[in-house]
Write a structure and sequence with these properties.
Elements: E1 4-7, H1 17-31, H2 37-41, H3 48-58, H4 65-83, H5 95-104, E2 108-112, H6 118-125, E3 133-135, H7 148-156, E4 164-168, H8 171-180, E5 183-187, H9 190-193, E6 198-200, H10 208-214
Parallel strand pairs: 1-2, 1-4, 2-3, 4-5, 5-6
Helix pairs in contact: 1-4, 3-4
């Protein structure tokens, strides 16, 4: 039986992708690197350091780890400043409604995000009360597509993977859910999350009624 839900943050609950893009773009411009939205798409669901490695590889940049960490910190400072502008109006359509229904029906809910700023985003949204547990980039060492972050979230909820449904908008996130033995709901296009158990174009379409209809034998 399904007893819990685990949600990615960016692209599922809210969308700070533009803030991420602009922060990376400022760093890249300052360094004289090439960075555009096509490269940015490769960073979806990827940790900060792994994202920086993708950008550096694309620009044939090789430096020592301390320098990489410094650059990642600079990007994060830009991003965190931008998060101050996030408000309760920045829930993706359908996300707050779904979280409200889940809490009303007594399901356990966790966040499973690679972001180390996830708690800050939840606070800005006013979404913290919806979540019984938060698994973020500070919780585990291995980021998606490793299943660690979802396993951490399930453990915090005191549930088994097969008792949880994961909502994800990234290919690596669906891979992580599958690797951990979770049921999965993909949010986004077929080419990105079509390998999820069920896929919706948007959170607005992924209502609790629709999810229950698909996984009806598990409720």
């Amino acid at each position: 039986m399904i007893k819990g839900f685990i949600f990615d943050l960016d692209g599922v609950i809210t969308d700070t992708a533009e803030q991420h893009y602009l922060a990376w773009k400022r760093l890249a411009d300052a360094m004289g690197w090439h960075f555009d939205r096509e490269i940015n798409e490769q960073l979806r669901g990827v940790s900060r350091m792994a994202s920086l490695e993708i950008i550096a590889d694309h620009n044939n940049v090789q430096v020592d780890d301390p320098t990489m960490m410094q650059w990642a910190a600079e990007k994060n400072e830009q991003y965190v400043r931008a998060l101050d502008e996030v408000t309760a109006d920045d829930f993706l359509p359908g996300a707050k409604e779904l979280l409200t229904h889940l809490k009303r029906e007594g399901f356990k809910v966790a966040l499973g995000s690679s972001s180390k700023n996830a708690k800050k985003v939840l606070q800005q949204l006013g979404a913290t009360p919806f979540f019984d547990a938060v698994a973020d980039g500070n919780s585990v060492k291995n980021s998606k597509p490793a299943p660690d972050i979802f396993l951490y979230g399930a453990k915090a909820l005191e549930l088994k993977p097969k008792e949880c449904i994961v909502f994800e908008d990234a290919e690596s996130g669906i891979d992580a859910a599958k690797a951990g033995g979770f049921y999965s709901v993909g949010i986004g296009p077929e080419e990105r999350v079509g390998h999820a158990d069920v896929r919706f174009d948007s959170m607005k379409a992924a209502t609790l009624f629709e999810v229950k209809s698909y996984f009806k034998e598990l409720f």
